[in-house]
Amino acid sequence: MGSVLSTNALSKRYKKHLAVNGVNMHIERGDIYGFVGENGSGKTTVIRLITGLIFPYAGSFELFGTDNSSSKIGQARSRVGAIVESPSIYMNMSAYDNLKTQCAICGVGDDEKIRAVLQDVGLEALYEDKKHASEFSLGMRQRLGIAMALLGDPEFLILDEPMNGLDPSGIVGIRELILKLNRERGITFLISSHILTELSLIATKYGIISKGKLIKEITAEQLHRECARTTCISADDPQKLREIVKATVDNQIEDIADGIKVLGDMDLTALLSAILAAGVKILSINCGETSFEDYYLSLIGGAEQ
């Protein structure tokens, strides 16, 4: 696939406070990378380091294979679009004038490009609309900010809390826009957020950060397995129970006190019938599943204080 971003023990210190502490993260081409952490965890600081708004205290990173200390890092950053904290929108200007100003600043684009990016983000009706951005909804401003970031045809788009403060329809709109740009234009995304349920609908990979440390990097498939439905069965003969379960279902199983844990969906009726037919006495059955929030909180609880 090819690496888009790789950090190596990336750190940032403000006086005595280590805001980012030895972060190692890896984003491949085509990823929608959900960057998850509580407020103050270091998400925005990492993004500011990557985009060159601040400089590392220690460690390094590579952007499209170019080291941050290289004289060519500016060329690599030209392939990146970013909205850090909030879109840089002039509230007393129309959508068109905001985009025209951005074209002048970046030395890219023309009227046809402006029309194209407005269409990309679902705001094509604003091309000739003189209404000022101050009159837009928050969701429309977020879309306009993304349109501005798209003017340079980025291969990698960084969005810092893009769904923060949006109403449900606005969140759905931004989610669908991200999926569309990823699918149709092949844009790789780094999306920081603390809205876990929304990230779980779009992310292909996650980085979980707490107190400046990246404590887990996990793919969506791995997360699904970690949060899969579980069935815990205890019995009077745990060893025989394990043999029956292994012979009856193909699921992954784990040992627990007095029994086993079966991961994933299965035909529970068939399994229980097999256990009873073998003369094994069932002591208890407990079914459940771990939510993304529960999984995240279990990791945060295990982070160093």
Write the layout of secondary structure elements.
Blueprint: E1 3-14, E2 17-23, E3 26-28, E4 32-36, H1 43-50, E5 58-63, E6 66-67, H2 73-77, E7 80-83, H3 95-106, H4 111-120, H5 138-150, E8 156-160, H6 168-185, E9 188-193, H7 196-199, E10 205-210, E11 213-219, H8 220-226, E12 229-235, H9 238-248, E13 253-256, E14 259-263, H10 268-277, E15 282-289, H11 292-302
Parallel strand pairs: 4-9, 4-10, 7-8, 8-9
Antiparallel strand pairs: 1-2, 1-3, 1-5, 5-6, 10-11, 12-14, 12-15, 13-14
What does the model show?
The protein is α/β, with parallel strands linked by helices and 305 residues long. The chain has 11 helices and 15 strands. It has a 6-stranded mixed beta sheet, with helices on both faces. Strands 1, 2, 3, 5 and 6 form a 5-stranded antiparallel beta sheet that branches. Strands 13-14-12-15 form a 4-stranded antiparallel beta sheet, with helices on one face. Helix 4 (111-120) packs across helix 5, helix 5 packs parallel to helix 6 (168-185) and helix 9 crosses helix 10. It is elongated, with a radius of gyration of 24 Å. The relative contact order is 0.13. The model has no long low-confidence stretch (mean pLDDT 90).
- Total strands: the figure is 15
Structural class: alpha/beta
Gyration radius, rounded: 24 Å
Shape assignment: elongated
Please state the average pLDDT score: 90
How are helices and strands ordered from N to C?
Answer: EEEEHEEHEHHHEHEHEEHEHEEHEH
Per DSSP, the total helix count is 11
